[in-house]
Amino acid sequence: MIRQRACTTLGLLALTSLLSGMSAADVRAQNSVQIDAPVGFAADHAARQAFCEARFTELPSGDAFREHLRIITSTPHPTGSAAQVEVGHYLGRVMKAAGMTVREHPYDVYLPQLTDDVEAHIVTPVAMQLNNREAALAEDRFSSHPDLLNGWNAFSGSGDVTGEVVYANYGTRADYRALDSMGISLEDKIVIARYGGNFRGFKVLFAEERGAAGVIMFNDAPEVEEDPYPDGPMLNGEIIQRGSVLTLNWTGDPLTPFVPALPLDGPVQVERLDPDEVGLHTIPVLPIGYNAASEILSRMGGEAGPEEWQGGLDLRYRLTGGPELTVRVRVNQPKALTRATNVVGTFEGSEFPDEWIILGAHYDPWGFGAVDPNGGTAMLLTLAEALGQLADEGCRPRRSIMIAHWDAEEYGVIGSSEWVEEYLEPLTDGAVAYINADGAVSGPNFGSSSSPSLKQPILDAIRDTPYPNEGRSIYEWWAERADDGVPVMGNLGGGSDHIAFYTHAGIPSAGLSSGGRSGIYHSNYDNFAWFERFGDPEWIYGPMLATADGLLALRLANADLLPYDVTRYAVDTRTHVNTLFEVAEFRRIEVNLDRLVASTTDLERAAAELDAARTARVAASSVSSAAAEAINAGFIGLEKAWLDERGLQDRPWSRSLYVSPDPFSGYASWMLPGLRYEIETDDPGDVPQWETRYVDAIDRLTARMDELTVLIREGM
Amino acid sequence: MIRQRACTTLGLLALTSLLSGMSAADVRAQNSVQIDAPVGFAADHAARQAFCEARFTELPSGDAFREHLRIITSTPHPTGSAAQVEVGHYLGRVMKAAGMTVREHPYDVYLPQLTDDVEAHIVTPVAMQLNNREAALAEDRFSSHPDLLNGWNAFSGSGDVTGEVVYANYGTRADYRALDSMGISLEDKIVIARYGGNFRGFKVLFAEERGAAGVIMFNDAPEVEEDPYPDGPMLNGEIIQRGSVLTLNWTGDPLTPFVPALPLDGPVQVERLDPDEVGLHTIPVLPIGYNAASEILSRMGGEAGPEEWQGGLDLRYRLTGGPELTVRVRVNQPKALTRATNVVGTFEGSEFPDEWIILGAHYDPWGFGAVDPNGGTAMLLTLAEALGQLADEGCRPRRSIMIAHWDAEEYGVIGSSEWVEEYLEPLTDGAVAYINADGAVSGPNFGSSSSPSLKQPILDAIRDTPYPNEGRSIYEWWAERADDGVPVMGNLGGGSDHIAFYTHAGIPSAGLSSGGRSGIYHSNYDNFAWFERFGDPEWIYGPMLATADGLLALRLANADLLPYDVTRYAVDTRTHVNTLFEVAEFRRIEVNLDRLVASTTDLERAAAELDAARTARVAASSVSSAAAEAINAGFIGLEKAWLDERGLQDRPWSRSLYVSPDPFSGYASWMLPGLRYEIETDDPGDVPQWETRYVDAIDRLTARMDELTVLIREGM
Question: What is the CATH topology of the domain spanning B567-714?
């Protein structure tokens, strides 16, 4: 890429010159290299940025990445274990040694206690205990660790139940409705459902609503078994997907929506809800592998299911087991207030310390967590060290760069949510972006999802990030694999630690990752032995992602005017309105959104003017600190135009009208979710009042852009 | 103890007062608590010291100790392994996070390459391979780690030899002479010797001198097997003691005596000896356990050995195997220049940065090394964090406190020796003390050995260090177990990283440790599983030792005048002269050491005057920095009076006339070794000339004390 080459060349020249005592400005004056300045940089800072970026890209180290991952994943360390406390200390020490100010943020949250006191049996026609632990393998020295647990689901109820079996396919809302329409009762039945199609908590919720006695979930076999572990990286019949089944209408601690679950031994006590009244699941639930599942499925005697319900095992998937087959599920899962601790490091900004670029990932796993989450954790530590080295060499960020390690994500995205609730005010005023890295490294396939205003900054950053061993940028590598040569940035949805930042606090958010083929999700085989063979054997994708994340963070931290792509708000909103029309058409509902479409047109105009004003301003002159602070407060405020204190339908904690997790599946993202809800629930009568709320939000966004344009132009 | 209580009370008062803005001096003025000031402190600094000590004793953390040990010992990490590089980085990060300045000190030294390509067989009358690896145990999750190695001895020769067997008891000089006198030839024989009685390298050296083809060494069985691992902490028949057999007449890198083995890729190249000419062993050597040893011993057909040669196995220990029994030993041990890296952290002294208190331990193990060495390593990291916290709270040391982690100790005490050679000049001018912590934590039994001038400071420090769960001090705990209620400080000898400091550079040195029952020395079972069951299950002895080491260091670092016990030089020298007479009597040799005895009497007088002058000086007034610096240079110079550039007999690198390792056994310490050597080698004719060298040294010491007394009195 031309820009990349220019930056690199300048960087090396600048480095040489710096050693001989010249300033970056001298270098720029002396060299005729044309700098294609990153968005938002005035000329004086663009030259310094080019120098710092060229040096930065040399710093993230594969050795460091490997070393951090090995140490962090040497023992199973789920939230609540002593080992996790140690890992937290390790993260703090590494960041402190890298030059960051480090703080631990403890919370006492309501969590399942670490136990695997679970069992499943076939009771009749044979007595057989079903395996619910991955085998110890000679090829995997970690697989025999004594601290590993059986398969279990966090926020299962406790109980010991025996009953006949009903197969519920993926256990989606549609699947359960199909069972209803076939007249198949779940009352006192053991539901068996395969993973996939939705968040696993909804499989349980819908079964519980129908009176089921218990739920067994399983990883379905692939149609054709390919490269099963340990010969390859993929699923085998023993692998069990652990996971939370928490389904509440807020994210975070079950007892403290809206407020942080501050420690019981701290100075401030928060009100906690009664755990019996928040609506936790009460029936026992557990997960098994497909070998164990086939013992149940092969003995089912009822009617065959629909063709789409047929899975990968070589047997007919039937709807009911019949009276001959009874299955027992026993789960003993005490819950209690439990310490969860986020560890947050900060490189304080030299000029705008209260403006924060936050990079984060959770650090709690189900077992060892080499991929999920600690590939991301090790990447962030590698990045912390690289940024520390860069700062030591004179490139200290103008805004604060924070690296956050969240606890208790696996049980319900809890650590990050409590932190956002605690720091909502400074985050609202000063958070520039949240960049997530959950399980971010497990292979060669780069990808990214983002809120609209960060999509272009990410694409710009990966244009200047080398793809290892390829002699080209990530962008070029990605573009080659895209349908029409243009990488498609996804829209950020549910399922990880950006939720509170993005949907509760209205902070532009994104996730970058480099994935690969894997069948060990949430299993005891997600460990260093798997990772060093299949995840990142050359230890190159971790440093690659650290470089991309770091370049993005450094531009957000050092730009004079924040480089949000404001035009994307209008473009993406139009796309989402079209999606609403498609959903409505699919559901055969008439909707009129003329006012929304019209407001989007005005937004488009305001965004274009704002974009032009910013470009003109940084091209014309340098920007004083005071001016930058005032203008950037305006940029930071834009995303908050989407916030509505009333929240979404039945979800007051979800304040963003722009995006939310799909309330009926959990993982997928819904865009313009207030309107989507009315359409999905076949309730077009409420569409006009929701359209009004959306038009108000877009008009707010337009007005803020116009004000900001005026402010920028005034200062010229 | 009274002093302890007074300090603690003052400490709490001071803490309270500090919070209310009062200075330590105010506190002292306001309170009538009588401070029994530690030796060498003027009143102003004594008050501050009491405050800092009271706070310090609260800081060393059992959780931190456990955590560091677990992380460091998660993988086998001998010198030369990739894991050891990672451990080095970890040590650096922890110390950096604690606020220390950290530097890695790399050396390229001549080392065996990491291989366990060794085997031993009975060839006739049966064909049987002898086991040379500890079994993987279900009770020990570490024992199956794939990076563990067979039993091997560093600096064995390479070769594949078969021959008849001779049993050499412990393989001491006396044992081999007994075989000589019985007319038993070792020519082309395989020598089998039990561990114990001397440094294992001498078992090989003496066998090689007699033409042996190879050596097998074994842990002998105890008379009565008690608590064998894994049921208890002690030896079992599979356990193999690895270890170096290097025997040269200097310590450190075999190719660079007197000079540091600076890295090949560094700016300065040092001359290296030809490895074929330094006198390394050439015959193959390996260690086995007693189960394997019994396979050989039980088949030996020769004459029974002397009664004292009978060991713990239930069979007759015979001198020769006879022609029916042949044994094969094969060792492939390539050697090459290999990177070894010390990691050294420094809290720079606020007032006397060039005066150093150095605490150290090696960090290279044979396998995991939970006891040897990393209990000490984890203790030092815990201490680093406590001292960092203390400094953050305002108690920064006046002199520099350094914490050093040495590499390649197990192969021949190499990392520390190279470092002392590299920094000999600043160490000579400024090193106040070296405190060693090799494998320092493995149980409840506190003990300490020291050079004379540090014995009393150590006893003082442990009077003020709580013994955990006992409500009394270490001193009291130790005194109860001593013969007449007085703890006996040992004399420091060979075998660990104090050697270069003490015997080459003349720096007062000591070792403190807390040991226990153990049979897993240098075996694959020296791991975290053993340690958490038998070493320090409550994680209390590591913090205890960190507290004792820390108090000692803080007093040496903060005293106005260094608190060396100068009177002990004379006391101990007298004791050692008496030992010489006893050895001479035992060997039936007449010696006259009248001049030595007389010089000791004058030393006694000078020491008493110096001690009194120091006491008077600090009692009279505060001591200016300039005065302290001049006087303490004199104190630091005292120990160097023992140095003689000519060195000891055949050991020019051993410059201290006061102490050396026993040249015929390696581990034990010889005091006044120049004279001892002449007596032990039955050569009384050379005693007078050696007595002259000793009288010269003692007279130098006396003269330096007298000069120092004058200097101290002048300033009053």
Answer: Transcription Elongation Factor S-II; Chain A (1.20.930)
Instruction: Name the token pair of A503.
Output: 């949907």
| Chain B residues whose beta carbon lies within 8 Å of the beta carbon of residue A67 | 86, 89-90
Q: What is the pLDDT of residue A716?
A: 57
Strand partners, A448: A512
Average pLDDT over residues B52-65: 96
Dihedral over Cα of A592, A598, A604, A606: its sign: negative
For residue range A631-654, list pLDDT tens digits in order. Answer: 999 999 999 999 999 999 999 999
Instruction: Say if B86 is an interface residue toward chain A (CB within 8 Å).
Output: yes
The ipTM, to two decimals, is 0.70
Flag if B75 and A74 touch (Cβ within 8 Å): yes
pLDDT at A30: 41
Choose among B70, B75, B102: nearest Cβ to A86: B70
Which positions in chain B touch A392 (Cβ < 8 Å)? none
pLDDT of residue A494: 78
Chain B residues touching residue A70 (CB < 8 angstroms) = 74-75, 86
- Whether the CB-CB separation of B712 and B613 falls below 8 Å is answered with yes
pLDDT of res. B59: 97
Q: Please state the rounded mean pLDDT for residues B275-292.
A: 97
Query: What is the reported pLDDT for B157?
Result: 97
Whether B141 and chain A come into contact, CB under 8 Å, resolves to yes
**Cα dihedral sign, A364-A370-A374-A376:** negative
The domain made up of B62-112+337-454+489-558 is a member of CATH 3.40.630.10 = yes
- Put simply, the chain B residues between 276 and 315 with a CB less than 8 A from any chain A CB are none
To which residue do tokens 């019985």 refer? B182
Residue B31, pLDDT above cutoff 70: no
Is 3.40.630.10 the CATH number for A64-112+337-558?
yes
| Token pair for A477 | 């590598």
Of the candidates A415, A40, A449, A119, the residue with the CA atom closest to the CA atom of residue A292: A119
Residue A5, pLDDT score: 30
* Residues whose CB falls within 8 Å of the CB of residue B516, separated by 6 or more in sequence, listed in order: B233, B442, B443, B444, B445, B534, B535
> A647: closest CA among A688, A690, A687?
A690
Instruction: State percent of chain B over pLDDT 70.
Output: 95
Q: Look at the domain B116-245+281-333 and name its fold.
A: Glucose Oxidase; domain 1 (3.50.30)
